[in-house]
Amino acid sequence: MSITWRAVVAGLEAATAMCALLNLAYFLHRVISVDSPTRRAAALVLALLSLGTLAESIAVMASLETTGHAPPFAPAAWVVARTISLAGTGFISALILKAIGDRK
Hints:
Elements: H1 3-31, H2 37-67, H3 75-103
Helix pairs in contact: 1-2, 1-3
């Protein structure tokens, strides 16, 4: 994989990991809050999804560091797939930041 593709993939993964970390922290806070049991259960599910996204991004960045490859796809297909993941994670982060801002 060329340096340019590696940089693009690393940037996408770093942004995805940061959004996933924010989402994970927020949802874990909601799990221990005084919300209803149903909302706490939903927050737990979303926290697990965020943890999975975070772990996946870290694994891809580690793979780039150790092997120089982002398996299992060709670079362009990988970037498209991971951009979709970043978009979903980023939109959740935007909703969280809006919810936090609305409380103040």
